[in-house]
Automatic annotation (TrEMBL):
InterPro entries: Amidohydro-rel, Metal-dep_hydrolase_composite, Metal_Hydrolase, Metallo-dep_Hydrolase, OTAase-like. CDD domains: Met_dep_hydrolase_A. Keywords: Hydrolase. The keyword Hydrolase applies. This is Imidazolonepropionase-like amidohydrolase. GO terms for molecular function: hydrolase activity, acting on carbon-nitrogen (but not peptide) bonds. It comes from Novosphingobium chloroacetimidivorans. Pfam families: Amidohydro_1. Residues 1-336 form the Amidohydrolase-related domain.
Length: 357
């Protein structure tokens, strides 16, 4: 089958996800972030994921990981990288960064910006590193998100946003391409997403983990609303009913990648609770997610002329997602990277030394 896609990763996110430590960018070494990312890429690949969209990681680490994977130097899924997550001073994911002095660190995962020109500059900084897309997060003013989206689109980059309530209205107005998470929004906002072709990556699984482990959602002082396992499913069903394009993303931060492949299977099961059949959930995980990556012509299905991102699993996931627990083989871009369930790296090939003249 075509390789699975995870549209929402933070490959370099710190292992220890306690609130004081989550965004403590100042403590992050770029080398350490890259090594942590390599480990997460290994977990994704062993779970059948052949493409990840990284929506916020430290410094240049996601770009280094992308290049190393593409060259065959490390086994893992192909990486589509947003670079740093951009938010306002004190915005989502930057609540602790200021206290810890992290926003000044070039290895930070979050970049804060204030004012439209500053948001434009933050987008350009990701573009300069080689970003494949831009990731924004609430909070922001209408003028700020308008500037950021305009700049990204001028540079040919799609924009995804992590937002809620009125910030979703602003994001739709600004013309973003996709919206992450199952956070609250009006029925009008759902209808506008459908009408404007704005995709949703509902990321049900992290909110299940949060509500089960914390008894509620306390992730951000600025995000005050009722959120539980029922409300996230209700929002997902509304999006589905409205005809919004929906893809699979897991947002496994901290040590949650250790829940793979169960976390991926849980998200697929979540999609069936939204009204998708098993086959439709797998289409969302492959073909539709490839379209959200703007790679629909090259990834997501097995067809002549497409890139060969192919996995072999021990069973039929159309009937039982548990088959995804036995990913035996994975090719990424036609290159064997998983063999008998283990990471595979082609052996060193000796080159001849220069001949003596
Ligand atoms: Zn995230």
């Amino acid at each position: 089958m075509p390789g699975l896609i995870d549209l929402h990763t933070h490959l370099t996110f710190l292992d220890n996800a306690d609130a004081g430590n989550i965004y403590s960018n100042s403590l992050v070494s770029g080398a350490e972030a890259a090594m942590r990312g390599q480990r997460r890429m290994a977990i994704e690949l062993q779970s059948g994921v052949t493409s990840v969209r990284d929506v916020g990681s430290h410094g240049d680490a996601p770009f280094v990981l992308k290049r190393l994977q593409a060259s065959g130097a490390i086994p893992g899924p192909r990486v589509f990288a947003a670079g740093q997550l951009i938010t306002q001073t004190g915005g989502h994911a930057a609540l602790h960064a200021i206290r810890l002095g992290g926003v000044e660190n070039p290895n930070a995962m979050v970049r804060t910006a204030s004012g439209p020109d500053s948001w434009r500059e933050a987008v350009r900084a990701q573009f300069a590193q080689g970003a494949d897309l831009i990731k924004l997060a609430s909070e922001y003013s209408q003028a700020e998100i308008d500037a950021a989206v305009d700049e990204a689109h001028s540079l040919g980059l799609p924009v995804t946003v992590d937002a809620e309530t009125r910030y979703i209205d602003m994001a739709i107005e600004a013309g973003v391409d996709s919206i992450e998470h199952p956070l609250p929004r009006s029925d009008e906002a759902v209808a506008r997403m459908a009408k404007r072709g704005i995709a949703s990556v509902p990321t049900l699984v992290p909110y299940r983990i949060i509500t089960r482990s914390s008894g509620g959602y306390y992730g951000s002082t600025s995000r005050r609303f009722e959120l539980n396992e029922d409300t996230i499913l209700q929002m997902g069903r509304k999006l589905r009913r409205a005809g919004v394009k929906m893809g699979i993303g897991l947002d496994l931060i901290g040590d949650w990648p250790e829940y793979m492949p169960g976390a991926y299977i849980d998200e697929l099961n979540g999609f069936t609770q939204l009204g998708f059949s098993k086959s439709e959930a797998l289409v969302a995980a492959t073909k539709t997610s490839a379209e959200i990556l703007r790679m629909g012509d090259r990834l997501g299905t097995i067809e002549v002329g497409k890139l060969a991102d192919i996995i072999v699993v021990g069973g039929n996931p159309d009937q039982d997602f548990q088959a995804l627990r036995q990913v035996e083989t994975a090719f990424v871009n036609g290159r064997l990277m998983l063999k008998e369930g283990r990471l595979f790296l082609a052996g060193h090939e000796e080159k001849s030394m220069p001949e003596k003249k």
